[in-house]
Amino acid sequence: MSTTEQLELDPAEVQAFAGRAVADAATWMATTMTMFGDRLGLWRALADSRPVTSPELAARTGTDERYLREWLAAMTAHGYLTHDPGAGTYLLPPAHVPVLATESPAHIGGLHQALYGLTGMLDRVLAVFRTGGGVPINAYPRDWFEGLERFSAGWFDHLLPQVWLPTLPELEAALRRGADVADIGCGRGRALIRLAERYPAGRYTGFDVHPESIAAAEAAARAAGVADRVRFECLDVSGGLPGDYDVITTFDVVHDAADPRGILAAIHAALRPDGRYLCLDINSSHRLEDNRGPVAAYFYGVSVLYCMTTSLAHGGAGLGTCGFPEHTARELCTAAGFGTVRRVEMENPFNILYEITH
Q1: CATH class of 11-97
Q2: 111-357: which CATH architecture?
Q3: Can you give the pLDDT at residue 181?
Q4: Angle, vertex CA 81, rays to CA 79 and CA 86, nearest 5
Q5: What's the CA dihedral at 145, 151, 155, 156 to 10 degrees?
Q6: pTM score > 0.70 for this model?
Q7: Left, alpha or beta for 145 (phi > 0: left; psi -120 to 50: alpha)?
């Protein structure tokens, strides 16, 4: 007799969980259709919040009307669009526009592009699930990295200069004077480029292990007109940073590093005595029971599909997305030789910000 047969199951509990599981599957489908809307420019075409018919939208976007009509139905059923059956029109409500259609702190188009990129990695991750090891960072598609840049653009374009830095007066004063700044795990360079635009007296260097991201960062710096004070280098800094710096930053980097202890030790060694290390990482707890709900579930899923597996692919620690919470951050930073780890007060469901000094 199976364990299930031995138990007396409550049919109402079974039915309730079945309903939840079906709803979760429906959410996955809605997210997939939302990715299509981002990929095909459909949300941008709906951004004026004016009613439009499916033939009109098909002509505007260069898409097939029959497919588009089915997509519109899916998005209406999920509550992302409204539908006027009499006029046969569809409308993107104004409150949905900044989330789906235009660049803003609330925009999640980059998240959808990144998830679109991750869908192509499922077979690779399934394989290492059985064998151990991991999927290396250079196996991931361009959509993943471009999507991450778009998703984090809200931080660097709106939160870093206007919200975070004003809470760090000593660090911001150093930037205004003209600091030597290093960004580790710089990706496609957006954070340094924004800092260089706002604080032109500084000298900025970005380091990353992904050559394609470094090439994109260099092109972006040239396009922004800041290449005279921003440079990028493809380098694993866990063995040491070249030079020393007034300000060092990591933005959602330490938790998926192959050698987080090595990176923190390198930062400590390269940070000048009165320098400041600005560390943004995931808002989570070191206790699984505290990490509940949709956001935590998303973190753990991304960990399996990227953060943990890319670290393990290089023989790394495999901390995972939730692997550098405040408890661990304080422990590892103290072990690296830092004297002060200050959590910056801010309300953010995704991230915690720390100012760390000698």
Answers
A1: mainly alpha
A2: 3-Layer(aba) Sandwich (3.40)
A3: 98
A4: 110
A5: 50
A6: yes
A7: alpha
